[in-house]
Amino acid sequence: MKRLSLILIIFIFLQSGLSADYAGDTESLVPEDAGIFIKTKKISHLLKTVNYVSSALLDADGKKVFNEKREEFRKKTGIDYLNGESLKRNGIDIERPISFVSYDKDNNLDVMAFLIPIINEKEFPLKFVEIVRKIRGDNDADIYPVITDYQGSALYQIHKDIFITTIAGYAVISSTGDLVKKI
């Protein structure tokens, strides 16, 4: 998971470029004390870059492993995360930027969040819970989220380290509840 996170961060960084078209979108949501803040242009542009890198720049072994993980995820969830239409069908707005934010560790826990643009703020958190359930591969698993109200939005906690809420058209998926409260 850490390797996939690192790869995703690198691709987001490569895509970040100038993002003046979307000024104020996620920047206005993230507090200034973030250690790292990375923002792409449109997700659709990020997909083109990741598809290019995965097909043209990875060696044969890297390509094989990458494609196997992609196919495994697709089989479990029904989502091809490098296909724009698949992402749109699952509630992600690919015409807006995605952002990543990281803070200093807190009690040796990673403190980070993704801000993912979504189409429907009310439906997406439950869809996300279902995706987590499918990834685990155990439909009987007790991963019903703890739901609390935070500033008029539902804050879902899945397991001990996955928190999700929606703010201003974005799903904020965080490793801590305190980080969600900062955003």
Indicate the topology.
Blueprint (H helix, E strand, L loop, with lengths): L1 H15 L19 E4 L3 H15 L2 H18 L6 H6 L9 E8 L2 E9 L6 H13 L9 E5 L2 E6 L3 E6 L2 E5 L2 H6 L1
Antiparallel strand pairs: 1-2, 2-3, 3-7, 4-5, 5-6, 6-7
Helix pairs in contact: 1-2
Architecture overview:
With 183 residues, this protein is of the alpha+beta class. It has helices at 2-16, 43-57, 60-77, 84-89, 124-136, 177-182, and strands spanning 36-39, 99-106, 109-117, 146-150, 153-158, 162-167, 170-174. Strands 1-2-3-7-6-5-4 form a seven-stranded antiparallel β-sheet. The protein starts with a helix and ends with a helix.
Please provide a brief summary of the model.
By secondary structure, the protein is an alpha+beta fold. It contains 6 helices and 7 strands; from the N terminus they run αβαααββαββββα.
Strand content: 15-25%
How many beta-strand segments?
7
Give the % helix: 25-40%
Oligomerization category of the chains in this entry? single chain
Number of helices: 6
- Overall body shape: globular
Q: Give the structural class.
A: alpha+beta
Radius of gyration: 16 Å
What is the mean pLDDT?
Answer: 81
Low-confidence stretches: 17-24
Largest sheet: 7 strands, antiparallel
Order of helices and strands: HEHHHEEHEEEEH
Strand ordering within the main sheet? 1-2-3-7-6-5-4
**N-to-C terminal Cα separation, in Å?**
24 Å
Feature tags:
183 residues; alpha+beta; seven-stranded antiparallel β-sheet
